[in-house]
Amino acid sequence: MTGDYYDGCPPRRDCVTDSFFCLGKDDVIKQISIFISSRQQLFQKTFDCYEDSLYFCKSNNKRDVMTEKQKKSIIESGKQYFREIIIPNHVKGLKNLKLKDFKINPFLVNYLAAFLCGNTEPESLAKALVYPRILGTSINTSFGQNIQIFISSLAQVAGTASGIDGIDIEFVDAIDGRRKYCQCKAGPQTINKDDIATILGHFKHLHNKARLDRLNVQIDDMIVGVLYGDESELSAHYKIINSHYPVYCGADFWEHLTGDAQFYHRLAKAFGEVVEEDNIDGSHLIITKIAEIAKEIEKQGGL
User: Fold this and answer.
1) Whether residues 50 and 79 fall in one domain
2) Strand 169-172 and strand 247-249: pairing?
3) Measured between alpha carbons, how far is 58 from 209 in angstroms, rounded to an integer?
4) Within-domain flag for 299
5) Same structural domain for residues 54 and 137?
6) Do 55 and 76 fall into the same domain?
7) CATH number of the domain within which 87 lies
8) Which residues pair with 226 in a beta bridge?
9) CA-CA distance, 192 to 240, in Å (whole number)?
């Protein structure tokens, strides 16, 4: 009887025989191991796909465009930033201004006084000094030095604060629906050459973290947001960064954040409204300071 069997399997030709049962003991064990291993691999692939989908939901989940309430919160936050930081520093700088604080080119200041007022009287000279200082240099410096305060408040009111080192805010792009990891800068000329390596380094750190933590972060999801200005005004330093990661500037940045193409202009106008709402008489403050500086010029016999 045993001669009629092959490896313990009846030699019946009238039916299809499952090869699994026609194997020896060792081969059966081997096939079972292969079967189990293949199922484990299939299970792992299925789990990985599921896990990837979870990370996708965490790191790049779409949401509705920012609500009008959130936009108004950003505007009010910006207004508070001007009320509490920019305006007090601006007024203080104006009130403390003395003639000795100016670096005066006597050739130019007399020309500018005559160009502005038609004469070189002490009051005209004072105007040529005070106007550009208080309406240009000092306020730009103050805004740039304190911009991080505004960025922090922006993150709080919009619910977009980032816990990743070097990243200021995170938000879901209103245009492409992907989560963005953003480093914010004040204006199109406000970074220097050394800042390039720092900015790129922060994004490299995020890229490595995303790879380790299995976050769905693409190159275009890491951006630099410039709060004001126009793309045509971007410095060469920004252009170098833009060759690696997107740089959104001015209205473009705010539209990506809020979904509102006019939000940039709404925000800019709101900053001016603070002066009206708080009844700040800036013209009186400037006229008073010009009179003080004129007296100093007159006392020393001109410039």
Assistant:
1) no
2) unpaired
3) 14
4) no
5) no
6) no
7) 3.40.1560.10
8) 185, 249
9) 11
Q: Is the CB of residue 214 less than 8 Å from the CB of residue 52?
A: yes
Which residue has tokens 């005209």? Answer: 124
* Cβ-contact 237, 226 below 8 angstroms: no
Question: How far is Cα 54 from Cα 44, in angstroms, rounded to an integer?
Answer: 15
pTM of the model: 0.73
Alpha carbon distance 62, 56 (integer Å): 10
Per-residue pLDDT of the chain (303 residues; tens, 9 = 90+): 444 433 444 444 444 444 445 556 566 566 666 656 665 555 554 444 444 444 334 445 444 567 888 899 999 999 999 999 999 999 999 999 999 999 999 899 999 999 999 999 999 999 999 999 999 888 888 888 888 888 888 887 776 777 888 999 999 999 999 999 999 999 999 999 999 999 999 999 999 999 999 989 999 999 999 999 999 999 999 999 999 999 999 999 999 999 999 999 999 999 999 999 999 999 999 999 999 999 999 999 888
Residues 47 and 72 in one domain: no
What is the rounded CA–CA span in Å between residue 258 and residue 12? 76
Please state the separation of Cα 84 from the chain's center in Å: 23
Is 238 within the bounds of a domain? yes
Does one domain contain both 170 and 251? yes
User: Quick one: tokens of 158?
Assistant: 């919009």
Q: Where do runs of H (alpha helix) occur along the chain?
A: 25-59, 68-81, 87-95, 106-117, 122-132, 138-145, 147-158, 193-213, 236-242, 251-258, 263-277, 282-299
| Torsion angle (degrees, nearest 10) of CA 238, 243, 244, 245 | 60
User: 179: helix, coil or strand?
Assistant: strand
